[in-house]
Amino acid sequence: MDIEMIMERPYWIIDILPKRVPENSDGQYFKVEQYYLAEPHITVLREKFLEIILKLSCYYTVNISTDCGDNWIDTPDPDTLEKNIMNCVGANSLYISTSSPECLITIDGCDTYMTVYDPDDELIDTLKQLAGAVGLFMWQT
Length: 141
Fold this sequence. Notes:
Structural class: alpha+beta
Largest sheet: 7 strands, antiparallel
Distance between the termini: 23 Å
Number of helices: 5
Low-confidence stretches: none
Helix content: 25-40%
C-alpha cells in the first residue's frame, strides 16, 4: 500500500463536530480542541474511535501500522486494536487499512478526528452509522 499516494485522494473526517469550523469563526474552536485533547476527554475520544474500528473489523479486514506503513499487523485482535488506538496520543500516529479497495484511516495523537482516505460508498455509509452511534460525525471536506 502506497500511503503517500492514498493520502492525496479524496478524504472524509470523523470528528467531534458536524462540519469544518470556518477560519474566521467567532467561536472558540482552539479552546474546545485543547479541552478534548486533555485527560480524561482524550481517553473518551479514543474509546469512541476504538468502538468504530472494532465494529468496522466485523465487516472488513483491518490491518494497522504504527510506522507509516513500513510494518503492518494483519487482522489484529480486539486487545491489540485497543492497545494501539488508546496509545495513539501526542506525536504518535496510527494507520488503519481496510479491505475496501485501497482505503486508509489515520489517527494522529494530536487531533480530535480520524481521516478516512478514498472510501467507497459502502464504507462511507457504514462509517457514518458507526460514528453516529458513538456521538461523532462524518463529513467531507
